Every structure is written in structure tokens, then in C-alpha cells.
Amino acid sequence: QVQLVESGGDLVQPGGSLTLSCKASGIIFRIYDMGWYRRGPGNQREVVARISRFGVLNYANSVKGRFTISRDNDKMTVDLQMNSLKPEDTAVYFCNDREMTLPWGPGTQVTVSS
Predict the structure, then answer these.
(1) Is the CA virtual torsion 73, 24, 49, 52 positive or negative?
(2) Whose CB has fewer CB within 10 Å in the chain, the N or C terminal residue?
(3) Residue 41 reports pLDDT greater than 90
(4) Any idea what DSSP says for residue 65?
């Protein structure tokens, strides 16, 4: 059974940091290009960051220089280190493969507010 489970979301003040983690199961994780996505208050889903199966990184302009995506193929996890968080980063964060073909997990809520 294919499953993605996100964790690590929290309430944090502007300028703070969080690390999100996504645990995959039921897939040959190492062959997938993976990504982090978010759905904000406007309910639009956007790509935050991607990491290919070869380790090539891509970031949305809005998070470049602040967020870092990484993966551990042995643990079947993909992490998102988020620094210098802004209120506009408030969203539910999800992981999925590059083509968004895997079943969506529950997501993890990140709220940036003072």
C-alpha cells in the first residue's frame, strides 16, 4: 500500500525555522523524483521544492535561499528545512512525486504568525 505521511508542522513566529519530513512506504522510493507542495489560505496548491532521483534541486522563487529540500533513500524520507519563515508561508504542506501521481498524505500544517 502506497502511503505518504508528512510531519513537523507547527506554529512559529516570523523569522523562525521548521523542518518538515515526509515518510514514504509502498514504493521504490529511490526511483522517484520527489517534491514538497503547499496549499495556502487561498486553497491553491503550489510547488515549493523538488529533488530528483539524481539529487537535482529546484525551488519556487518565493522560497529560494530560505528552504532546503533533501532526501534519504535508505529511510525513504524527503525533508524540507525552512528558515526565515514569513506569514505568507502559512499553508498545509504535502509531499508527492514530481508528477503528483502518488496518493496524497494528510499534510502538515505550518502557521507563521506572531
Answers:
(1) positive
(2) N
(3) no
(4) T
